[in-house]
């Protein structure tokens, strides 16, 4: 009961904030989506993140959350779509922010879980170029190579990652 009351208070505050500061409406909707996501209400959270990008088509954090939620729901097509929207928003094509690294990481997982191992190899390789000491990315690259049929290469990378 207390949890529902807290969510209700947060929702009322969020709506008041959105009305008082129209420019911050996307951020307010995003924050409400985060509250719902954390409480396990993924379908409801999706609605708020979608509403946030309707308010501001360039609001990258909402796209990232949409990608993550759709991946959790194993809707990899939708997940991939929203992650790709983030890269379209970055006109430079450079990976510079933690958000960009998060997209590489998350999309690498999506490609791996949907069985698109060749695409996963590309992303995990990009991640290792940016972070050569990222042994998790190295391990996932190895698993992706194994999935794509390059067993020896994959096992060597997995062994190297585990031994560091």
Automatic annotation (TrEMBL):
Name of the protein: Tetratricopeptide repeat-containing protein
Keyword presence, Transmembrane: no
TPR repeats by residue range: 26-59, 60-93, 101-134
InterPro entries hit by this protein: TPR-like_helical_dom_sf, TPR_rpt
Transmembrane segments: none
PANTHER family attached to this UniProt entry: CELL DIVISION CYCLE 16,23,27, CELL DIVISION CYCLE PROTEIN 27 HOMOLOG
SMART domains: TPR (SM00028)
Keyword Heme: no
Alphabetized UniProt keyword annotations: TPR repeat
């Amino acid at each position: 009961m207390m949890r529902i009351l807290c969510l209700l208070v947060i929702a009322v505050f969020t709506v008041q904030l959105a009305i008082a500061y129209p420019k911050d409406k996307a951020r307010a909707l995003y924050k409400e989506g985060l509250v719902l996501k954390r409480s396990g209400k993924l379908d409801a959270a999706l609605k708020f993140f979608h509403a946030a990008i309707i308010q501001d088509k360039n609001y990258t954090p909402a796209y990232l959350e949409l990608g993550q939620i759709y991946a959790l729901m194993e809707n990899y097509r939708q997940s991939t779509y929203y992650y790709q929207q983030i890269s379209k928003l970055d006109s430079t094509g450079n990976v510079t922010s933690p958000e960009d690294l998060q997209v590489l990481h998350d999309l690498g997982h999506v490609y791996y879980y949907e069985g698109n191992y060749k695409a996963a190899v590309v992303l995990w390789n990009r991640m290792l170029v940016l972070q050569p000491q990222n042994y998790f990315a190295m391990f996932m690259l190895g698993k992706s190579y194994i999935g794509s049929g390059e067993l020896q290469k994959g096992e060597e990378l997995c062994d190297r990652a585990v031994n560091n």
